[in-house]
Design brief:
mainly alpha
């Protein structure tokens, strides 16, 4: 008989799903940012804001329908409002790094803009978003059968 591998901790599964959705959002973010800034000649900060908004939209649907699909869906209007609120805080964190680098420090190359926005800013904003989404937006559903809200039986 083959030994069973231990199931990963529920938080590890959640973080992996969040990371997968975030990776897709990252691709959307980078593509839209560079398309706007490089191909269309849009100013860097406006390109960053447009790119972040496109990624936020993609991430909401990925997180709502996959990462947090088992969470309470009873108050989706409230959830969407909080998602937008915390996403906007993340947007400010992410694009503040770009603004400081590009306008404050004068690092204006394509590489510098991408590092500031898509590595430093996005890294800080992603940590904030993970915490805020799991804490305030996609709240846990109350268990119906006495099991914890996240148990091995809930594994994907």
């Amino acid at each position: 008989m083959r030994p069973r591998l231990p199931l990963p901790h529920p938080l590890a599964r959640e973080a992996a799903k969040f990371g997968t959705v975030g990776a897709f959002g990252f691709l959307v973010n980078v593509v839209v940012f560079n398309l706007c800034a490089q191909a269309l000649g849009v100013e860097p900060l406006l390109s960053g804001l447009l790119a972040t908004c496109a990624a936020i939209t993609a991430n909401y649907f990925g997180n709502r329908h996959w990462t947090y699909r088992d969470r309470d869906k009873g108050r989706q209007r409230r959830e969407a409002g909080l998602f937008v609120l915390f996403s906007c805080v993340g947007l400010l964190l992410e694009n503040a790094a770009l603004a400081i680098s590009h306008y404050g420090l004068g690092f204006t190359s394509v590489l510098a803009d991408n590092l500031a926005k898509n590595v430093i800013g996005l890294g800080i904003a992603s940590a904030f978003r993970f915490w805020s989404y799991r804490t305030w937006v996609f709240t846990e559903r109350a268990p119906r059968d006495g099991r914890p809200a996240h148990s091995p039986a809930d594994a994907v």
